[in-house]
Amino acid sequence: MKEKIIKKASELFLKLGFKSITMDDIACEMCISKKTIYKYFCNKEILIEESTAVIHKEVHEIIDSIIAKNHNAIEENFEIRKMFKDMFKSSDASPIYQLKKYYPEIYHNVISKEIDQCSQCFRDNIEKGIREKLYREDLDIEIYVKFYYTLIFHINENTSSEKEAQKIELEALEYHTRAMATPAGILELEKQLKKFTTY
């Protein structure tokens, strides 16, 4: 039952935001009593903590499965962007923005783990792009990793609308890629942008 509650809570938090959803809403959605939820979670913060841990794990499992498909470095980034677009497409309020605003302590715990994993992911992608001659050889990889995660996390932390955040993140991905790309990389970027806008 505990896993079922976390699963349903995670879905609702992602769809409607961490602040908007109450324990009553979760109980109602699951057709169980609120007392049943409190049997496993003494308060909403504990449920949010466990739900964010599950969401974090699922997101990184999907990212790993995209990377395993061995797309080129630029396509890989666009496939990951598509995954986030699908995952949050029914959201109005940005879940990350709400988490930071209303549950800052949980947010900081999540973000410290996220920055480590994302930095490694960005680093691997840049190294791959250099090998594929899609990114320039002379890049200072650590600086570009820092640039990109600063951009992405800043967008998420400060944009309350999920739709707006997605739009700006796509612009950030284009900006990041153009800054690193070789002429062959620019051609691949244009191809991916065209595909993404028809998606």
TrEMBL record:
<feature type="DNA-binding region" description="H-T-H motif">
    <location>
        <begin position="22"/>
        <end position="41"/>
    </location>
</feature>
<protein>
    <submittedName>
        <fullName>TetR/AcrR family transcriptional regulator</fullName>
    </submittedName>
</protein>
<dbReference type="InterPro" id="IPR001647">
    <property type="entry name" value="HTH_TetR"/>
</dbReference>
<dbReference type="Pfam" id="PF00440">
    <property type="entry name" value="TetR_N"/>
</dbReference>
<dbReference type="GO" id="GO:0003677">
    <property type="term" value="F:DNA binding"/>
</dbReference>
<dbReference type="InterPro" id="IPR050624">
    <property type="entry name" value="HTH-type_Tx_Regulator"/>
</dbReference>
<dbReference type="InterPro" id="IPR009057">
    <property type="entry name" value="Homeodomain-like_sf"/>
</dbReference>
<keyword id="KW-0238">DNA-binding</keyword>
<feature type="domain" description="HTH tetR-type">
    <location>
        <begin position="1"/>
        <end position="59"/>
    </location>
</feature>
